[in-house]
Amino acid sequence: MAATLAGCFAPRAETEARNWRPDGPGGRTLSQLLALSPGIAATTWESFDGPGGATEVRLTAEYAVPRLAGACPAPPAGQETAARGFLVLGLTVTPAGQVDFAYAEARGYAASGAWQSTPLDIGVIADLVARATVLPCAALALPKGS
Question: Strand, helix or coil at 6?
């Protein structure tokens, strides 16, 4: 019976992802890094069954675009600044609790309905550790009326 209950008390994959320390054991947790990320407004965490017993954890972090866009050049002709901007970060959590980067993208949505997705690489984790802006300016400039 104890073996059966042991799985009930194991940390959930989402908890493992939130507590992941991408900068090593002495570094901050992913949750702490997000709290310090410039312009962060809100976060949403989701978990999905993945291959081989792993769990995919997806973080969607909304950023305050006016705060970020102030550091970007004005959008070129025919483009507009996003009204909302998001970082979507995918992590894989193994049954043993190991957390690995899977994917990242920036998503921008304009008031006109235009939107775009910009693929990002693992460098976004380094940006979080460095407390740098994670959404590139290009992801915040959208085609007008698309």
Answer: helix
Query: In the structure encoding, which two tokens stand for residue 57, read together?
Result: 């954890």
Q: Is residue 2 part of a domain?
A: no
Q: What does the alpha-carbon distance between residue 75 and residue 73 come to, in Å, rounded to a whole number?
A: 6
Is the pTM higher than 0.85? The answer reads yes
Residues with Cβ within 8 Å of 87's Cβ and at least 6 positions away in sequence, in order, are 59, 60, 61, 63, 104, 105, 106, 120, 124, 134, 135
Q: What is the pLDDT of residues 30-69, one digit of tens each?
A: 999 999 999 999 999 999 999 899 999 999 999 999 999 8
- Determine the Cα angle at 129 with ends 123 and 130, to 5°: 90
Q: What CA–CA distance (Å, rounded) separates 83 from 71?
A: 15
Q: With residue 31 as reference, give the H or E element that holds it.
A: helix 30-36
d(CA 41, CA 89): 15
Q: How far is CA 32 from the centre of its chain?
A: 13
Domain that holds residue 19: 12-143
Q: How many domains does the chain have?
A: 1
